[in-house]
Write a structure and sequence with these properties.
This protein is an alpha/beta fold. The chain is built from 18 helices and 14 strands. The structure holds iron/sulfur cluster (SF4). Pfam families: B12-binding, Radical_SAM.
Amino acid sequence: MRIALLNPAPESAHPLGVSGEPMGILALASVLRAEGHEVALRDLGLLLPDQRAAALETVLEGAALAGISLTGGAQVAAMTDIVAAIDRVCPDAFVLAGGALPTFAAEALLRQIPRVDCVLRGEAEEALPELIRHIEAGTDWRAVKGVTCLVEGQARSQPLPRMVPDLDSLPFPARDLLPDLDAVGLQPTLITSRGCWAKCTFCTSQVFPRLAEGSLWRGQSAKYVLAELDALWSDHGVSKFRILDDNFVGPGTRGQRRAREICEGIETRGARGYRFFAAMRAEVINDDIMARLLGAGMDRICIGMETWSPSQLRRLGKNSPIEVNHRALDVLMRHRPETINLGCILFDPDTTPEELIANIELIAQYGDLYQISQLTSRLDVLPGTPAERDLQARGRLKGAWDGYRYDFSDARVGWAFDLLTGALADIAKLEQYCRKIDAETPVPRDSAAELGGALHRFAIDFFREVIGVCDALLPDESAAWRDEADRLQTRAKAMRDQTIGRLALIEMAATSAATTVAR
Ligand code: SF4
């Protein structure tokens, strides 16, 4: 069968707005090709808006089945164009949706987008080939595990398929999209494990393994991971990559041993100059594993610490005491990978001013590990999560499955969030610019670092001031809230304009110095 697999582009302020390879459809493409199917695939988010329509038509050409992967609500708006293209190019194609979002919002999706014949929930490596066999044979595909469809207007769901018990049994993911990835400057992705043993209330990665049959966390063997790296190196020359597992270092001694073996294997291939990114939980960090990761070439790390407030940490279900975050950060500071990214959720529906104060003091202490944009990080509520159930039960959820919204319990926090989001947006962009200064940019690095540092200090002080003001205001003082908002916004604008002015002067000075040298 000819099959088209698609990843829709998310709605985003940035023309691309993607974070990496769509590993879900790439893994499925390999499985389907091994079954003899012809698979075309495309991630429309890796293309600029004016390239997408033509790419969509090409990938759908002659398709008997179109599979669309959705991981977030921001991709849903693009479904209108995709459905229109399917009706034009391959009107008889069977259309299915899969991925994290459809798995937990299957019925709502089918009702909102009637052209979708079914949702395939859960891991599809075993279920999709079976579904295709039924479609080809003209037998009843509705009985396949994981299928949700509408029958005479009623949703009918089969139980979730089991999770693939042995990830080593799967072929390596297809790498069709490496040229697209390269064109936008992103590195290839490896997924070496699936699932999570933690219980964060906002995360679908922990929900799904508790619904389907199988272990909470499954890892590929070190042998498999190293063989995939060898193939990426020999076929595509890949030495820089990102491991986008939820938890690269798995639980307990088993998880540490696997990570150590992978690191040792990468180290023995050191001549290739491997550099990589990995994400993991704070609790798995220790001196031994950090030394091995750095020895293997890990230069960027992400730890989902989320918050420095013990009460917020408990509310988010992180299931580890705040001391674990402190200990992990001490280890990170001793080993200092090139880039440390600390996952951050400062605003959740029940955040209090006291929690914000606790957070900002620690963020100030850890300085440039945080970016200004993280000061307005807000919890996203996703279908299927405990956070969704909790807010729904309390009547707090607004919007729908493809984009939930909520008001903060404490109106002062809502006021502070809106103010900070508006006032710090340009300041955060300027900080990004200063951080990304390279040899091509007409601003010397030390000047950029100085400006970036000043912006950072301003943002921290500004945050403190906003929270201090909101803590002091009473609910019935609306005129005072407005006046304070005006005053604070004016202050942020002045900082923005002053920084832009200084950048322009530095750029002019650097350009004129370069011209003099050239003469
Ligand atoms: S540790 Fe990360 S992957 Fe695991 S449940 Fe929490 S947020 Fe999700």
